[in-house]
Design goal:
Blueprint lengths: L18 E4 L5 E12 L5 H22 L1 E6 L1 H4 L8 H8 L6 E6 L13 H12 L3 E6 L10 H15 L5 E3 L2 H27 L6 E14 L6 E14 L5 E9 L15 E4 L4 E2 L4 E4 L3 E4 L2 E12 L4 E15 L2 H8 L10 E6 L4 E11 L5 E8 L5 H9 L3 E8 L2 E11 L6 E7 L3 H4 L1
Parallel strand pairs: 2-3, 2-4, 4-5, 5-6, 7-17
Antiparallel strand pairs: 1-2, 7-8, 8-15, 9-14, 10-15, 11-15, 12-14, 13-14, 16-21, 17-20, 18-21, 19-20
C-alpha cells in the first residue's frame, strides 16, 4: 500500500485561537480547531461517512490530551447555499480555502469536469496543494459491478492516478476498516507536525536569550521577628543561551513583596542572595554578584554581572539561593487590605508568581508550605493579566501540577510544584494559597 502526503507542510495549521470544548461528562478544555475537508465524487458515499466517523473517533481519543479538535467539512452538510457564484467556486471558498487538512477519496469515478480541472475533486486537490496544506489521497480498490462502470470515468481516473504518482504518494484501500485506520494515522501525523512547528516558532521569537531551564523552589516559614509575616527561602537554577549580538551584560534577580507597605525596607529585612559554586559560563568569563537594592515600591533587585558580556551563542548556568524576610502576610487580616489596589483586586488568597518573558524549554516552580503556617493550598493559576480559569484547568489536567505531603529538614508540610514545557510568553504563573485568619493562626 502506498501512503504519505504528497504536499509540502508550509503554512499548515491555524494554531491561533483556542475554543472552549465541553466533554460529555461536562468538563471544559481549550482546544485548537482544525478543519478537515472531505473531498470526493458522489460514488464513494460510504467512504466519506467512514472518514467522518474516523475523525470523531480521533477526537474521542486525542482531543483533550492534545488540545486539538478536528472538525469535518462535507459539502452535503457544511456548504452554505448561495447563487452568487458557480457551485464549485463556492465549494472552493467555503471548503478548500478554510480547510487545514484535505482528505480526498476516489472510487470508480473521477467526477464531473469543471471550468478549471478534470473534475471538482481534482480542482479541490489542486487548490489545496497550492495553499500548502496536507492533502491525503485514497483510491478505493473495491470491485464495482460492470453495469455501474463508466469507461470514460475509469480512463480519466487512471490518467489522474498516473499524474499524481509523479507528485508524491497516495494510498489504496480495499475496505472501510482499513481506510479508518489509515485516516487515524494520517491525522495524528498532521497534528504532530503542527505541534512541532508550534514548538519551533515558540523558540524563534525576538528575544536576547533562550532558557533551557528556569527553576525556582520556595520554602516558606514563620517569620522569626513578626507574627504577621511569612519569610521565604528561594533556590534557583537558570540555564540559558545568549542570542544577543551585543552580548548580555547582566542578569537581574528581582522580586516584589506587598508586605513592604507595612514593614518598611531596612538592612535587617532586605532580601539577600548568594551565587553558588556550581554556577558557570561556557566561555572564560566571570560571574560577579552585586549587593541588593530597592528599585521602587516593594520591588528589590540583585544583579549578577557578566564580565565580559555573554556573547551570542554562549551559555550560562546560574545557581543561586537567598533569604527573603517578611516576604508574605501570615494572616487574612493583613493580606486583604494590601490587595485592595492591586492588579487582581481585593482577594483572600496570596501567591508567588513568575511572568514569562523569554522562551523556556522547561519551567519548574515549586513552593513548600510547612504545616504550622496553617495555609490552605489552592493550586496553580495562570493568566495574562487576570486569571485565566480555562488555561489553569488545562495545566492541571495535563499533569503539570503535583501536590504531596512531605518532610523537609525535619519539617512536615505540603509541596506544590508546577513542572511544564514551554510556558506561554507574557503569561504569569502563580502558586496560590489562602492564609488563615488571626483567630486560627493564634
Amino acid at each position: 500500500m502506498h501512503f504519505v502526503h504528497f504536499v509540502h507542510f508550509v503554512h499548515f495549521v491555524h494554531f491561533v485561537h483556542f475554543v472552549p470544548i465541553r466533554t460529555v461528562g461536562g468538563s471544559v478544555f481549550d482546544a485548537n480547531v482544525l478543519r478537515v475537508m472531505i473531498a470526493s465524487p458522489s460514488d464513494v458515499r460510504s467512504a466519506r461517512d467512514m472518514v467522518e466517523l474516523a475523525i470523531a473517533a480521533w477526537n474521542v481519543k486525542h482531543a483533550e490530551s492534545r488540545g486539538v479538535v478536528l472538525l469535518p467539512w462535507r459539502w452535503e452538510t457544511s456548504a452554505v447555499p448561495d447563487l452568487a457564484a458557480p457551485a464549485q467556486a463556492l465549494l472552493n471558498t467555503q471548503g478548500v480555502d478554510q480547510a487545514d487538512i484535505v482528505v480526498a477519496l476516489l472510487g470508480s469515478k473521477l467526477g464531473s469536469p469543471t471550468q478549471n480541472a478534470a473534475s471538482g475533486t481534482v480542482e479541490e486537490i489542486e487548490r489545496a496543494r497550492a495553499r500548502g496544506i496536507p492533502v491525503h489521497l485514497y483510491f478505493s480498490t473495491e470491485s464495482v459491478p460492470i453495469a455501474q462502470i463508466d469507461v470514460d470515468q475509469v480512463l480519466g481516473l487512471q490518467q489522474f492516478k498516473k499524474a499524481v504518482s509523479d507528485l508524491g504518494l497516495y494510498a489504496e484501500f480495499q475496505d472501510l476498516g482499513q481506510l479508518a485506520s489509515d485516516i487515524d494515522r494520517a491525522l495524528t501525523h498532521d497534528v504532530e507536525q503542527a505541534e512541532k512547528r508550534k514548538v519551533d516558532s515558540y523558540f524563534h521569537v525576538d528575544s536576547d536569550r533562550v532558557y533551557d531551564l528556569y527553576e525556582s523552589r520556595w520554602t516558606l516559614s514563620k517569620s522569626g521577628t513578626s507574627p504577621h509575616a511569612i519569610s521565604g527561602h528561594q533556590e534557583c537554577h537558570r540555564r540559558f543561551t545568549s542570542r544577543s549580538g551585543e552580548g548580555i551584560e547582566r542578569f537581574e534577580i528581582t522580586l516584589a513583596r506587598d508586605s513592604d507597605k507595612q514593614i518598611g525596607f531596612s538592612r535587617e529585612n532586605a532580601p539577600m542572595f548568594r551565587l553558588l559554586d556550581d554556577s558557570s559560563r561556557s566561555d572564560a568569563g566571570i560571574l560577579r554578584l552585586k549587593p541588593p537594592y530597592k528599585t521602587q515600591g516593594g520591588t528589590f533587585a540583585q544583579v549578577i554581572s557578566f564580565e565580559p558580556p555573554l556573547d551570542d551563542g554562549a551559555s550560562v548556568h546560574l545557581h543561586y539561593s537567598g533569604e527573603v524576610p517578611h516576604f508574605k502576610f501570615a494572616t487574612l487580616e493583613q493580606l486583604e487590605p494590601a490587595t485592595r489596589n492591586s492588579q487582581l483586586g481585593l482577594r483572600d488568597w496570596d501567591s508567588v508568581a513568575v511572568k514569562v518573558s523569554f522562551p523556556i524549554s522547561r519551567f519548574v516552580y515549586s513552593v513548600f508550605f510547612p504545616d504550622d503556617l496553617g495555609v490552605d493550598v489552592l493550586g496553580v493559576r495562570a493568566g495574562r493579566g487576570s486569571i485565566d480559569v480555562a488555561e489553569s484547568a488545562r495545566i492541571r489536567r495535563a499533569g503539570y501540577v503535583s501536590q504531596h505531603q512531605t518532610t523537609r529538614d525535619g519539617v512536615s508540610g505540603i509541596e506544590l510544584t508546577l513542572d511544564m514545557p514551554r510556558p506561554q510568553l507574557k503569561w504569569t504563573y502563580r502558586i496560590c494559597w489562602r492564609p488563615p485568619s488571626e483567630t486560627v493562626a493564634d
